[in-house]
Amino acid sequence: MLDTLMNVGAHRIEYFENALESKPSAFGFYIRGEKGAKDIYSRDAKYQLYAGLVLIHEKAAMSNLVGIYVDVDGLENLQRPAYLQFKMDLLSGKFKRVFVHDETALIGVPAADADVQSLFIETGGFEFIVCRDAECVSIDLLTCINR
After folding, report:
1. How far apart are the first and last CA of the chain?
2. Contact 72/45 with Cβ under 8 angstroms?
3. pTM of the predicted model over 0.70
4. 106, 94, 96: which is closest to 130 by C-alpha?
5. Could you tell me what percent of the chain has a pLDDT over 70?
6. Domain 2-145 sits in CATH 3.40.50.1390
7. Does 42 have pLDDT greater than 60?
């Protein structure tokens, strides 16, 4: 998976065995990082991946992890391949819980905020879980977007 972090526009999607069954505790883990011109790889994405997996493991939640979606690209690009698959999987009901280590993986610029808000409405809502002070917390996505 680490080779994915080396190129702008790269993406990777990893599904786990439990991706075939939909259950209320199921969640998708989305990661987005950017890579500077002089960087060898996306440090943001690597950190989100490792730190997120540590938290998931500590919470004994690996059995609920449907998939990991990784994009190395800017937030303003709404055509990121892993993001598009992530949205399709969320819309198809594979999971109703979304985990991001850093909410700026999904929100933070007007176009991305509007897209995620539209996805939230289209799915009938989903739980948005972020890492805050090394803890996983559920936050109100719409409040976060509209601030």
Report:
1. 35
2. yes
3. yes
4. 106
5. 90
6. yes
7. yes
Domain coordinates in residue numbering, the chain: 2-145
Reported as a single tens digit per residue, the pLDDT across 44-102 is 999 999 999 999 998 888 899 999 999 999 999 999 999 999 999 999 999 999 999 99
- In three-state form (DSSP H/G/I as H, E/B as E, the rest C), the secondary structure along 40-52 is CCCHHHHHHHHHH
- The string of DSSP codes covering 12-70 is EEEE-GGGGS--TT-EEEEEEE---TT-SS-HHHHHHHHHHHHHHHHTT-GGGEEEEEE
pLDDT value at residue 17 = 72
**β-strand partners of 13:** 69
DSSP 101: S
Instruction: Give the pLDDT band (50/70/90) at residue 18.
Output: low
Give residues with Cβ within 8 angstroms of 101, minimum separation 6.
Answer: 31, 47, 48, 51, 52, 55, 130, 131
Report how far residue 64's alpha carbon sits from residue 24's, in angstroms, rounded to the nearest whole number: 9
Q: What share of the chain is helix, strand, coil (3-state, %, to 5)?
A: 40, 25, 35
